[in-house]
Structure formats: structure tokens, C-alpha cells
Amino acid sequence: MTDLPTVTGYIAAALLTAGCGPGVRESGVADSTAVPSSVAAPAPVVEDDSIFTAAPDSAWVPVVGLTLVAFYPVVSNDSLEKDADLATVLDDLSYHIGSAMDSLVAQGVTVHYRGGDTLWLRTGAGRARVVRMRDSSDVGYVFADTLGRRVVLYGLRSNLDLLEYTREFRATGAIRPR
């Protein structure tokens, strides 16, 4: 059984330690549908509208301009104590987002940090659901913009990588696989 308030507190503390403050929002959600890593997503699949109405308002990520969402699994502190590698990855994720935050915000990028397996994106009247692939890395990033372009990157990326990917996505709407 996952102790969500404890995990959320752990993630919040890690974000504050990494220097993430205003502009970073937490909730209990995160990630992508059948979109291969480092490849632009196709147009959203039209799904049963009830799937969207079931998502709580707090789960939605508003895409207003270029948006970067870092996602991570929701795990208990007990699980983190047993999995030192995952704890290190989560710390590193927080560190790299925190290190890139000022530069990203200065470039007009909205940054969100979400935990879970499903990410709900809202662009004006458009809606999209991104579900983390089961065989994917535990952490990753979604780049999205108001034109409906999306790229999902799985795995940890450095702060410098995030800045470079942001420039590339802004210019092309895609990110070359590396």
C-alpha cells in the first residue's frame, strides 16, 4: 500500500532541496500513451469522453505555451528505502529540474512535476491523455505546446540536456533520438 501523503512530502522536500519553488506544481498524476521515446506524438486519439470527465480538476496540466512535465512513479518511503537506485534517480530528477528551472522559466517554459502513470493535458479546448508505457523507465519528460505537438522522453536527463531539448522542441516540434 502506497502512503501517498508521505511520498508527496518526500518529493516536495526533494524539490525544495533542489531549488524548485514557484512554477513547479505537484499533484498525483503523470506520463504517456503509445508514443516511442524521443518521437513526436501523433494527433491525440479521440477517446470516450467519460475518460476525461473522470479526471479530477487538480490532475490537469494546462498547456499554455511551451510546457515541460517531468514525471516520476508514486512509491512509498518503504519502497524507496528498499530500492536505493530508484531513490537516487528521483533525487537526480529533482536536482536536474531544479538546476534548469530558472533558465526554463526565463525562456517562457512552464514546468510541472507530476507523479503517477497518467498525465492529463489541456490545451484550450483540446484534451489529451498520456499514459506511461509499462516497459518504460520510471521517470521521464513530456514536452508539449499549444499546437498539439508532444514528445515523450523516458529516462533521466541532465539539466543541460533539458535546456537543449527545449530549444530543439521549440524550433521543430520534435526531438532527435540520441
Total number of domains? 1
Q: Per the principal axes of the C-alpha atoms, what is the gross shape?
A: globular
Largest β sheet strand count, sense and barrel closure: 4 strands, mixed
Q: How many DSSP helices? A: 5
Strand proportion, as a percent range, falls in: 15-25%
- Spans with pLDDT under 50 lasting ≥5 residues? 1-46
- Structural class, from secondary structure content? alpha/beta
What's the overall average pLDDT, rounded?
A: 75
Run of helices and strands: HHEEHHEEEEEH
Which strand order do you get reading across the main beta sheet?
3-2-6-7
What is the radius of gyration computed over CA atoms, rounded to a whole number of angstroms?
15 Å
Number of strands: 7
Helix content: 25-40%
Amino-to-carboxy terminus distance: 37 Å
Task: Give an overview in words.
The chain has 178 residues and is of the alpha/beta class. It has one domain (4-172). Helix content is 35%, strand content 21%. It has five helices and seven strands; from the N terminus they run ααββααβββββα. The strands form two sheets. The chain has a four-stranded mixed sheet, with helices on one face. A three-stranded mixed sheet has the order 1-4-5, with no helix packed on it. β6 and β7 (150-154) form a beta hairpin. α4 (84-106) packs across α5 (159-172). The longest helix is centred in the middle third of the chain and has 23 residues, at 84-106.
